[in-house]
Amino acid sequence: MKDRTRFFEDVHDVVRLVPAGRVTTYGAIAAYLGLKSAARMVGWAMNAAHAITGVPAHRVVNRNGLLSGKHHFGSPTEMQRLLEAEGVRVVDDQVQDFDNLLWEPLKELSEP
DNA sequence: GATGTGACTGACC
DNA sequence: TGGTCAGCCACAT
Predict the structure, then answer these.
(1) Which of A29, A20, A26 is nearest to A83 (CA)?
(2) Phi, psi of A20 (to 5 degrees)
(3) Per-domain residue ranges for chain A?
(4) Does at least one atom of strand B sit less than 7 Å from the CB of A46?
(5) What pLDDT digit, counting tens, does each position of A42-75 carry?
(6) What pTM did the predictor assign?
(7) In the structure, how far is the CA atom of residue A16 from the C1' atom of nucleotide B12, in angstroms?
């Protein structure tokens, strides 16, 4: 039991591991969970994470570094504000230097 | 029980 | 070069 629901827990756990000032993508989380093609599920899990504290959903953006989920925050600018507060530059709802700030659990947590 | 939807991604035309 | 289509899994109705 609790085999499938663990997906949400895993997503929340991974997002919590994202260090401040870094961002990750839905695909990276999905890939880490073994569902690299189920990025949608990650977004859905984030919806549940919305009701949980300690899950920096604002650090999760789409593959283009675009704040696709900003609209799900209290305010459409809340996500950008949180990122900027951590030192992440956001312009036009898009993370600047995204490629350098990208934090992939499958890659970061895979290092010895 | 079946159908629709969802904060995405990659491939194809 | 840009737009469109299908795929993935879980939850809600």
Answers:
(1) A20
(2) -60, 140
(3) 6-99
(4) yes
(5) 999 998 888 888 999 999 999 999 999 898 898 8
(6) 0.91
(7) 36
- The amino acid at residue A109 is L
Sign of CA dihedral A80, A82, A84, A86: negative
Chain B footprint positions (protein CB, under 7 Å):
6-10
Structural class in CATH, domain A6-99? mainly alpha
C-beta of residue A97 within 8 angstroms of C-beta of residue A89: yes
The answer to whether A4 touches A27, Cβ cutoff 8 Å, is no
Contact A68, A61 (CB under 8 A): yes
Cβ contact A64:A96 at 8 Å: no
